[in-house]
Design brief:
Layout (H helix, E strand, L loop, with lengths): L1 H40 L14 E5 L5 E6 L1 E2 L10 H11 L11 H13 L13 H8 L10 H5 L3 H17 L2 H11 L6 E2 L1 H9 L8 H9 L4 H4 L5 H17 L5 H9 L6 H5 L3 H10 L2 H4 L6 E5 L3 H18 L6 E9 L4 E5 L26 H10 L7 E4 L23 E4 H6 L3 H11 L1 H10 L21 H12 L10 E6 L7 E2 L11 H17 L13 E6 L5 E7 L3 E9 L13 H16 L10 H7 L19 H10 L2
Parallel strand pairs: 1-5, 3-4
Antiparallel strand pairs: 1-2, 5-10, 6-7, 6-14, 8-9, 10-11, 12-13, 13-14
Helix pairs in contact: 1-6, 2-9, 2-11, 4-6, 4-7, 9-11, 11-12, 16-23, 17-19, 17-20, 17-22
């Protein structure tokens, strides 16, 4: 019985042995087949250097200097033989110290990573990867399954993917030399701030080639491999320096540098280039990316260079002035936001701020462009422009008194002044200067709401404008950029001006301009003489009207305040002879501001910006026309028609006073 049992056990062992042997044989055949399959599937090394599926966009300012990048930046020309030795050694020390000795995989490294992950409460393949550089390249290449896998899927560390990486990595070791594998890695790995590959990263952070980086710069670049977004020096330079210090310690441990070299590199860490450290104009850049031709700026695989109108010096003074307003006048718990646009007389946008977050990241809401808000009295110049164009004089008399405008099917419209008072007979110039609501409504009704709407549209207001009498008081929503550009048209004596941010577009390395913006003259919306008279009236707003807080002694300036209903928005739009600046303050949730009107903080911020601007850009006198000069040129006198109040609108102030005292 015992002998029978021993024979049976021996038979079972033989069966298990032969089955195991055959299984191992099948696994070896399958493994060899996979290695061969991947080997013959792999293209030449040169074809794998550039991973671009979409190009990048480099933006240069008005001086031709780079100030921003968008999209993925690639540079597939780096070779491991020509890269800086500091950088090559730093990568080896951090990622795979046995790179030149293994055959694509490190079983010890994989098992160690699994043990650490399990001990830290993660899945076996979540967290530490234990991958060699060759395995990382396999992941970067998505096992050559680009058409079937997204970038996120390629990065998933599943058991199946880890197993597939092994034959793929071994096939790579057969197909390519170590230098070629390292070259692929150097050109494809992501290093933060949209940079793919060490050449793109070196250019973006240090404005130099990866062939030229020194020890401290190499350590910072290699440190990005652990967590490129978290350690990107443009996001947090101090964290990047701390990580670089760890890299230097590893380099010393592997005898790539000596102790003195490590101390010296730690003492003089890498610093960002001027271009990378500026970090200005985020809102401007996002506006450009949304307005430039999509097929050339964002949907191409080429690296595109866009020349813009951006002025970093003006942007910085705008940001500093805005920060000072927040620090000195706005409560810490306030949710108020500020938007600013500065453009030259011809519509070239020089600076843009879309909110209190100065970074203006790609996902930030740009209040200068995207927010539609009621302009309040800042809309009134369109009414006066229409009136002047029809021959009304700035000296024409209107009555500031309670009025009713009939509206079909509803109650009459009864506009009120901001202070609740009525001044009686006043000139149109005084009415605009004091921002009298009743007269703005009378004038708009008399010349026609449709005419006012047409004038506003011709000056560049693209937002929907209402048709009721409340439009005269800025009830229709607009954005800051279009309103500021419209005021540039006022400065240009009645000729419309379009806001311009990008000037031309070309592919990097090619001097031929692919596309340029149309900078032809705008439409002459109102007669130039009427435009000169409007300048005079807007100048009076700053000299003695609601915009007096924006006044700068010795400078010829003009503009208009605006406060929407319930003080939800406060505006000041104005100009010197060479710059137009628009300021908006409000809450995103449309709640009322506390004690803020257009003639208050917006006018003060505008004045602060203009004071700094005029130090380097001295303005000239505005080309205004006095009421007396305008009356000479007026094409005809306003006929003796009655206004909605029944009073004649073309009479002298003496006659108006007599009528008020003694009746008609």
């Amino acid at each position: 019985m015992l002998t029978l049992f021993k024979n049976l056990l021996l038979f079972v062992r033989m069966i298990v042995f032969w089955l195991t042997l055959r299984l191992c044989f099948l696994v070896i055949i399958l493994f060899g087949t996979l290695v061969s399959y991947f080997y013959f599937l792999m293209p030449s090394m040169v074809d794998l250097l550039d991973a671009r599926d979409r190009g990048s966009v480099t933006l240069v300012d008005k001086n031709g200097d780079v100030f921003a990048w968008r999209g993925k930046t690639f540079e597939g020309s780096l070779r491991s033989e020509t890269v800086s030795p500091f950088l090559r050694n730093a990568i080896i020390a951090v990622e795979d110290k046995g790179f030149f000795n293994h055959f694509g995989i490190s079983p010890r490294g994989i098992l160690g990573a699994i043990r650490i992950n399990m001990r830290e409460g993660r899945g076996p393949f979540q967290g530490h990867g234990g991958s060699t550089i060759t395995q990382q390249v396999a992941k970067l290449l998505c096992l050559l399954q680009y058409q079937n896998k997204s970038e996120i899927e390629c990065r998933k560390a599943t058991l199946a993917r880890k197993l597939m990486e092994i034959p793929f990595s071994i096939a790579m070791e057969f197909k390519y030399s170590k230098a070629e594998i390292l070259s692929i890695y150097l050109n494809r790995v992501y290093l933060g701030a949209g940079a793919y590959g060490f050449e793109a990263a070196a250019q973006r952070y240090f404005n130099k080639s990866a062939r030229e980086v020194d020890l401290s710069e190499a350590a910072m670049l290699a440190g990005l491999l652990k967590a490129p977004s978290r350690f990107a020096p443009t996001s947090n330079l101090e964290k990047a320096k701390e990580r670089a210090s760890v890299v230097l310690k590893l380099m010393e441990k592997e005898n790539f540098i000596n102790h003195q070299e490590r101390l010296s590199a730690n003492k003089f860490p890498a610093e960002l280039s001027n271009e990378a450290s500026k970090q200005v104009g985020g809102y401007f850049v996002n506006w450009i990316m949304g307005s430039a031709p999509k097929e050339l700026a964002s949907a191409t695989s080429e690296d595109v260079i866009i020349r813009t109108s951006f002025d970093p010096e003006i942007q910085q003074l705008v940001e500093k002035s805005t920060q000072k307003i927040f620090q000195d006048f706005i409560k810490e718990d306030s949710k108020a936001e500020i938007a600013v646009v500065v453009m030259s007389k011809d519509g070239l946008v020089r600076a843009m701020l879309g909110g209190r977050d100065l970074s203006g990241g790609a996902d930030k809401f740009n209040r200068a462009v995207q927010a539609l808000r009621q302009p309040g009295s800042a809309f009134k110049p369109f009414i006066y422009a229409a009136a002047l164009d029809q021959g009304y004089s700035p000296n024409a008399i209107f009555f500031d008194e309670p009025i009713e405008i009939p509206i079909d099917g509803t109650q009459p419209y009864r506009p009120k002044n901001y202070n609740g008072e009525f001044l009686g007979p006043v000139t149109l110039n005084e009415a605009l200067g004091k921002s009298i609501n009743t007269i703005a409504v009378q004038l708009a009704t008399e010349i026609g709401i449709e005419r006012v709407r047409a004038i506003a549209k011709d000056f560049g207001i693209r937002s929907l404008i209402g048709t009721g009498p409340a439009v005269a008081l800025g009830a229709s929503e607009v954005n800051l950029l279009e309103l500021t550009a419209a005021y540039a048209g006022f400065l240009s004596s009645g000729r419309s001006v379009s806001p311009i941010g990008w000037l031309d577009l070309k592919v990097r390395g090619d001097e031929e301009v692919l596309m340029s913006v149309d900078r032809s003259d705008g439409l002459q919306v109102i007669d130039s003489h009427a435009g000169g008279a409007l300048l005079y009236m807007l100048r009076s707003v700053v000299e003695s009207g609601t915009g007096i807080r924006a006044r700068i002694p010795g400078l010829d300036l003009a503009g208009k305040t605006g406060t929407s209903q319930s003080a939800k928005d406060a505006w000041f739009i104005g100009f010197s002879s060479n710059f137009v600046c628009g300021v908006w303050i409000g809450n995103d949730d449309n709640t009322s501001l506390e004690g803020v009107t257009g003639g208050g903080l917006p006018a003060q911020l505008w004045s602060d910006i203009m004071v700094k601007l005029t130090k380097t850009h001295a303005p000239k006198a505005l080309p205004f026309m006095t009421p007396e000069e305008f009356e000479v040129y007026a094409s005809y006198s306003v006929p003796e028609e009655t206004s909605p109040t029944g009073k004649s609108t073309n009479r002298s102030i003496l006659k108006a006073l007599l009528e008020t005292l003694f009746g008609e």
